[in-house]
Amino acid sequence: MSEQAREDTFEPRIVAFFCNWCTYTAADLAGISRMQYAPNVRVIRLMCSGRVDPQFVLAAFRNGADGVLIGGCHPGDCHYQEGNYNALRRIELLKQTLVGFGIEEDRLRLEWISASEGDRVQKVCNEMTERIRALGPLRLTTPSRVEAGAPGPAHELVEQVTS
Amino acid sequence: MSKPKVAFYWCASCGGCEEAVVDLNEVVLDVVEAVDIVFWPVAMDFKVSDVAALEDGELAAVFINGAIRTSEQAEIVELLRRKAGAVVAFGACAWLGGIPGLANLYSRESILDYVCGESPSTVDGGGARPVEEFDAPEGRMRLPHFDEDVRTLDQVIDVDYYLPGCAPPAGLIAQAVMALVEGRLPEKGSVLAPDVALCAECIRAATKPEDLKVERFYRPYEIVADAETCLLAQGLVCLGPSTRSGCGAVCIAANMPCTGCMGPTSRVIDHGAKALAAIASLIETRDPDEIAVLAEQIVDPVGTFYRYSLPASLLHRRVEPAPIRGGPAV
Question: Do residue B10 and residue B159 come from a single domain?
Fold first, then answer.
C-alpha cells in the first residue's frame, strides 16, 4: 500500500508485548469472555515484561508499528520478583529518549494488568488504538540516497580521467 | 613483487582518525615498509584522478574515516570501493555515524538556517545560502550537495571490515593493517576488536559491586569521582557494560566515564537502546515517581546513549526535526 493510501485509510498498527503470567492470561480471559476490542493490537507473548529489551520496541517502530503496548503483572506480583520493576525503569528512560527522537510519548504505553482483568485488556487496547489514531501514522525516515547519477565535482573529475 | 597498495580517505570527520594513524609512531614505519600508500589527502599530494586511473580492485585496502554527508563524499567512497579489494570503515563515524551523526537530530533546512543566518558569528544576515553551481570567469564552478541526513559508510557502499573507536586505538590499527597486508583476512563484516564489553577489561572491574544499584545519577562535573572505584558505582553514567572493549579503558584511567565510542558488541543491533537498558536497570528504587526523577537526571538521553551511533540506530534520525535554535531535542 502506498504511503498516501495508508494515510487515507489509517488504521493504527500496535504491537503489544504481554507477559505470560498476567497480561497474556488476561487477554485470554477477554477472549473466552467474548469481550470485543480493537483488532489493531498484535500480541506477542513473552515470559515477563522484564524481557522487553528496548531494542524490541524500536524494532517494532522500525518495522511499521505506530504504537507499542507493554503489559505486565502489578507491582509486587511479578512471577520473577523484579521483572516488572525493570520494565518500568527501562520504559521510563526509553520514553524520555523517544521524545528526543521526536516520537510522541503516548506511542509507548506500559500497563499493569493481572490475569483476572480481561476487561482492562479490552479498555487499554481500545484506548491505545484511539490515541494512536489521533496521533496518526508514525513516519520514520530511512537513510537517504544521493540521487542516482547526480553529477558532482568528484564525479566529473572521474569522467574526465576515465574518458 | 610490488607492495600492496593502500589508500586513506576522510569524510565527515574531525581529523582525529588521521592523527591516530600518525600516532602509530615507529609502528607506522613497519606499515610504510609493507605497503605503498597511493592516496591520503590529509598527508600526501595525490589526486582523485590518480585513484581513478587505477585498475578496478587494484588497491589491496582502503581505510575510510568519517560519516557521509555530502555528494562528494559519496562519490569518492564509491570510487574507492570500485578500486579496492577490501574497504575498512575506520573509526566510530564511518562505522556508526559518530559525533557528526548527531546532526540527524536536526533537519537539513534548520542546519542551513542556523549556519548561514542565525549563528552569532554570521554578520552577513540576508539569509544567503551556498549555491551548488555558478559561472565564474574560470568556468562553471560546483560545490557538493549537502544531503538530507548523515549516513554511515555501509549505508552508502559495501564495507568489509570495521575498526571501532574515536579514534581507533593504535594497537588495533597496527593489527588490522598487518592482518590485511599479510592476507590473514577475517570474516567479512568483522569488527576488528575484542568482542566483549569494556567492563571485562576495565582496570576498576574489581571494585564493581556484585549487585550494582544507583540512587542518583551524576554528571561528571557534579562530583569529584574517586579515582579507583567503579564509576557506575559512584552514579556516573558509564557505558562500559554495553560498549565493546579494545580501547584499554583509557577514559576510565583518566577518571572519566565511558561514552561508548567503541560501539556495541556483535550481539547488539542498536547500541543506544542496549546502553539505555543497562543503565536503567541499575536504578535502585521501585517507586514510579522516583524512577522518573532518576531518569530525568540523565540530561539529553539521545546524546548520552547514541553519542556515536545515531545514524546506525534503528530509528536513524529524529522523526520531525526540531529547529536548531531550540537547543538539544529533548
Answer: yes
In the predicted structure, residue B80 carries a pLDDT above the cut 90 = yes
CB contact under 8 A, A161 and B286: no
Which residues fall within 8 angstroms of residue B19, CB to CB, at 6 or more apart? B167
> Cβ of A62 and B314 within 8 Å?
yes
* B272 shares a domain with B170: no
Is B29 inside a domain boundary?
yes
Provide the residue type at A92 as one letter: E
Residues of A in contact with B317 (CB under 8 A): 141
Count Cα atoms within 13 angstroms, Cβ side, for B154.
Answer: 21
Whether residue B80 lies inside any domain: the answer is yes
* pLDDT tens-place string over residues A121-146: 999 999 999 999 999 999 888 776 54
Domains of chain A, start order: 9-138 (3.40.50)
Residue B282's domain spans which residues?
A: 198-298
What is residue B308's predicted lDDT score, i.e. its pLDDT?
98
Residues B157 and B291 in one domain: no
Q: Do A92 and B329 touch (CB under 8 A)?
A: no
A99 → closest Cβ in B279, B283, B330? B330
Task: Look at residue A161 and tell me whether its pLDDT is greater than 50.
Answer: no
Residue type, B126: G
How far does the CA of residue B210 sit from the closest CA of chain A (Å)?
A: 16
In a domain, B55, yes or no: yes
CA distances from B219 to A135, B81, B293 (A): 35, 42, 15
Residues B56 and B92 in one domain: yes
pLDDT of residue B328: 45
Contact B7, B84 (CB under 8 A): yes
We report the CATH number of the domain holding residue B70 as 3.40.50.700
| A chain contacts of residue B141, beta-carbon cutoff 8 Å | none
Q: How far is A99 from chain B, CA to nearest CA, in Å?
A: 6
Q: What is the pLDDT of residues B267-326, one digit of tens each?
A: 999 999 999 999 999 999 999 999 999 999 999 999 999 999 999 999 999 997 555 554
Q: What residues contact B263, with CB distance under 8 A and at least 6 apart?
A: B92, B95, B96, B162, B164, B191, B243, B244, B271, B308, B309
The ipTM estimated for the assembled molecules is 0.91
